[in-house]
Amino acid sequence: MTARERVAGTVANYVDERTGAAKWMKKNLNKVFPDHWSFLLGEIALYSFIILLLSGTFLTFWFDPSQREVVYEGSYEPLNGIEMSAAYASTLHISFEVRGGLLMRQIHHWAALLFMVAIVVHLLRVYFTGAFRKPREFNWIIGVGLLTLGIVEGFLGYSLPDDLLSGTGVRIAQAIIQALPVVGSYLSFFAFGGEFPGEAFIPRIYTVHVLLLPGIFLALITVHLMLVWYQKHTQYPGPGRTEKNVVGYPLFPVYMAKAGGFFFIVFGVTAFLSAVASINPVWLYGPYTPGQVSAGSQPDWYMGWLDGLVRMAPPIETHAFGHTISWNILIPGLIIPGIMFTGLALYPFIESWISGDKREHHILDRPRNVPNRTALGAMALTFTIVALLNGGNDIIATTFNLTINQMMWFSRIGILVLPPIAFVVTKRLCLSLQRADRDLVLHGRETGTLMRMPSGEFVEIHEPISAEKAWTLTQHEQPVPLELEDTDARGVRRPGAIKNKLRNRMSRAHAVAVPKVNAQDLKEIEHH
Amino acid sequence: MSSELEIIKDPGVPAHIHRQADLDPKAEQKAERQVAILFALSSLGTLLFIYSYTFLSEDLFIFFPILGTTNAKQLFLGLGLAFALFFIGAGAIHWAKTLMPDEEVIAMRHEMRSEDEDRRELIKTAKQGAAAAALGRRSLIKRSLGLSLGLVGLSPLLLLRDLGPLPGKKLETTSWKTGTRLVTDPGDRPIKPSDLEVGAVAQVLPAIKEGGHRALSDIGKDAVLLIRLRQEEFQLDPERLAMTYQGIIAFSKICSHMGCAVALYEQTTKHLLCPCHQSTFDVTRAAKVIFGPSARPLPQLAITVDDEGYLVAQSPFNEPVGPSYWERNSQ
Asked: For position B188, which CATH number holds?
């Protein structure tokens, strides 16, 4: 035994005698993780969160979360002698006088953007591959919660510097609060400690941004990861992969080295972006004052779709009995997002209700094999993208020499027309891809080699695909539509007949598929 | 149904293909060297970081293609950190991919559902516990506990009451009073009609006493835009026309949609545009909404001149400025 092994043994013994961890550690160090690039998306979100904690802590050492008015006297000449909030002045101090301060601000902001991108793309991966199905519904809901909190946390974060752009964003948030029927103006006065903007808001959101929400994030992320750990990761279909096993690399050392290394890569790329691509140069915007605004005011991208919805809303207000209800704010600002996030959170339950499938699933779906779900996802995505485009309608209009009116009408019509088109097109595409899979399995791969038959006819030589590939393309289950009876055995109408009819219809739509190749098909074709 | 048909057979996990480094000691050494080089590059990154932090001057600007002129210190601090971090990651992953075992292993899953016996035991335990607490029989305890749990939530809610004052009339009132002078923002100079040429725009605020201070929340309600047009360009009813003075018309600058500053004025079309959500108001028709999400015109401030010839407010705003709210009487 070498000296090193003796030390390792002693340490392990010391720890185990005090915690009894050996059994648990032994099992978990050998834990198997399947490998696929799309499984890194959630990791990117996790690592950006750690980067956010580190860079954010650094920023708190100098940031002064106060709306107390000060006169700026610092090294940034253009703003010298100008009145501003202490929050804005300290942000300038971090940017210009603390060495590396600007870099850390940029890293914090880039990491926040990356965090949200990673969450959304991770969500899309989970959605389109059906990874949310039983037993992972809880984790799906936690994920939707993290997405929602991420949007709020990001918004509060970029509001803290109290510059002209962020203050304008806060003004809009205040108008949404104020538009709530009955309680709106009260809630607004409570949130802002009086009239907008007041002097209470920045210190308050600071506490929420650096303590309350990160705490909730930590708790939710912990549960999210523990569930992934406990339920074991899903895997893509392939040879040897079944619902009962998991094929991949052991945690120690391969997966640890890869995941740990990947953290440094994500951090490195964030630092690189921060070094070369400047975002949110708050010193150019100037301090916030409600009487000014800069043209082309844009929120960060994850708020952009909300702003886009607000921009395209028709000018409808109800004026009655001495009260005002702003539908032009409530519908795009609260009601539509509320419906979208509720639908997102409930989707696993809706799908399982439609398909009647209550079993566990650990093998992921190829999106083409579940056309309805894929098409629905494409539809929701199209809706959000049109809204996001309209959030930048002024920028797009000036860039492409369009009028703002053209942009707005494109969005107003597009948001209603394009999503259904996306649904139909995606569903057709999925079925076509299924057909292509079927052809591939039955007739093999086109080799590109032409052969001339004795009769003079040219034919292309097809090569049979490998057994592994044939399995991957045919391993999926094809859903069977529900057949709920309207009447029971004695011909009496069952309660909820309309509900059942609807469920039957949706289930039939969900089960539409091109029949996959089975062993008999293959045998038949061999006889030709 | 597909389940009745025989499906194509699963060929099982494909045989493992060894990497070069597994078979050839030379390739193994080469991979080891590569990993070491990557880690060394990371150390160079850290050195660049330390050098930039300590020695580079704050006001050194250098030109880079694509990036343009950038601050050297910021750039090299960032690049140093980026390399230092990135190459640790690259080294670790290269190590894992070339030298650590790459044979896939298979682990079995277990169903999430507990064993039936455990589930029965749990139900039994829960029932026993409930029976021991005897909540079912002790309805007095149950009800009083329910009541106090319901009430205890009120205290934290009540504690939030002092977050802010009640709105009162604050959303309806501004600092504009009859006779308040209009002063430039910035500059605080009173304005005579002759200061504004036809086509000119000015942002104004109500005058305050010498050495006084304006709170941002006042500016958020008081900001007003003055626009001067030729008298004949207006299409106003007599009541609204009387609120103008020699072709000068005054509107609240706070958008009636969500409260942004309506800061863009198109001189040719005489439209005011809010850059936040593109609500567009026609100045010649009393700021009527002609496009965008806003549902109400901008409130108009009646103006005139005082004895000294300076522009003043004829009267306060006759409706609340800014975005809508429940208590607003908009009829």
From this structure: 2.102.10.10
From chain B, the residues in CB contact with A325 under 8 A are 324, 326
Contact A240 B324 (CB under 8 A): no
Question: Chain A: nearest CA to B210, how far in angstroms?
Answer: 18
Cα–Cα distance, B28 to B95 (Å, whole number): 10
- On whether any CB of chain A is under 8 Å from the CB of B208, the answer is no
The pTM assigned to this predicted structure is 0.93
B60 part of a folded domain: yes
Q: Do A249 and B102 touch (CB under 8 A)?
A: yes
Give the residue carrying structure tokens 């994920």: A143
Q: How confident is the model at residue A1 (pLDDT cuts 50, 70, 90)?
A: low
Same domain assignment for residues A8 and A56: no
Last residue of a domain, one of B40, B67, B98: B98
Contact B89 A261 (CB under 8 A): yes
Q: Under an 8 A CB cutoff, do A329 and B166 touch?
A: no
Number of domains in chain A: 3
Binary contact (A468, B165; C-beta < 8 A): no
- Pairing type for strands A323-326 and A83-85 reads unpaired
Please check whether residue B271 is in contact with residue B319, taking contact to mean a CB–CB distance below 8 angstroms: no
Domain that holds residue B48: 20-98
* pLDDT, mean of residues A224-253: 93
CA–CA separation, B39 and B42 (whole Å):
5
Identify whether residues B201 and B309 lie together within a single domain.
Answer: yes
Tell me if A410 is assigned to some domain: no
Asked if residue B135 belongs to a domain, the reply is: no
pLDDT bin (cut points 50, 70, 90) of residue B180 is: very high
Domain containing residue A8: 1-30
For residue A397, is it within any domain?
Answer: no
SS3 percent helix, strand, coil of chain B, rounded to 5, is 40, 15, 45
Q: Which of A243, A268, A290 is the last residue of a domain?
A: A290
Q: pLDDT by residue (tens digit) across A17-72?
A: 998 888 888 888 889 999 999 999 999 999 999 999 999 999 999 999 999 999 99
Write out residues 246-305 of B within 8 Å (CB-CB) of A. Answer: 253-254, 257-261, 263-264, 273-279, 289, 291-296
Q: Nearest-CA neighbor of A138 among A406, A348, A430?
A: A348
Q: Residues A228, A195: one domain?
A: yes
Quick check: B2 pLDDT over 60? no
For this complex, say whether ipTM is above 0.90: yes
B63: Cβ contacts below 8 Å, ≥ 6 apart: B69
Residues A233 and A204 in one domain: yes
Return the beta strands (E) in chain B as ranges. 61-64, 68-71, 105-108, 182-184, 201-206, 224-228, 248-252, 264-266, 271-273, 280-282, 288-291, 300-301, 303-305, 311-313
Q: Using alpha carbons, list the distances in angstroms from residue B268 to B177, B229, B281, B306.
A: 32, 11, 13, 31
Residue A357 in domain: no
Domain boundary among B53, B80, B98: B98
Residue A125 shares a structural domain with residue A40: yes
Q: DSSP letter string over A482-509?
A: ----SB-TTSPBPTTHHHHHHHHHHHHH
Residue A46 and residue A94 in one domain: yes
CB–CB of A67/A199 below 8 Å? yes
Interacting residues of B319 by C-beta distance below 8 A, sequence separation 6+: B299, B330
Is B128 part of a structural domain of the chain? no
Average pLDDT estimate for B57-75: 88
Whether residue B89 is contained in a domain is answered as yes
Q: How far apart are CA B324 and CA A179, in angstroms?
A: 6
A39 and A21, same structural domain? no
Tally of structural domains, chain B: 2
**Distance from the A87 Cα atom to the nearest Cα atom in chain B, whole angstroms:** 15
- Domain check: are A232 and A126 in the same one? yes
Q: How many CB pairs under 8 A join A and B?
A: 342
Asked if the Cβ–Cβ distance from A261 to B203 is below 8 Å, we say no
